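Usage

Read records sequentially. Each one opens with the input sequence:
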Amino acid sequence: MRAGDDRTFVIADLPGLIPGAAHGKGLGIRFLRHTERTRLLVHLIDLDPSTGRDPLADYHAIQDELRAYSEELAARPQIVAVNKIELPGTEESRAAVERFCAQHGFSFHAISAVTGAGLPGLVHEMVRWLTSEPWVPAAR
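and closes with the structure output:
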């Protein structure tokens, strides 16, 4: 991905972190191994109300798997981004995630992959972290 100047960085999408992934369920271990090469974790949380999912429960499930796999990995810098803000009915869950992030000191971004809303700010934040934080591998 381009950082808006000559710098580039790689983003890896890590789907499949289901409950039990850190203990070998599904393909979770493979995905978790890939995260060891990251310096920054971005939680992309789906706000689509038609899924019936709880965005904060989804965040906690991923965080629990990261922690079960490696405390060092779970302690890496993290950004929380909620997606699909263009959909009606996302306001309440968006506000709940934003309050959670404010209470816990996490950087929060509301974005729409469809419209591009909020994406420049998210990319800027990612670049800021990647250029200011050293790479530290997780202990295993």
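Summary fields computed downstream for this record:
- The chain has a mean pLDDT of 84.
- The longest helix spans residues 55-69.
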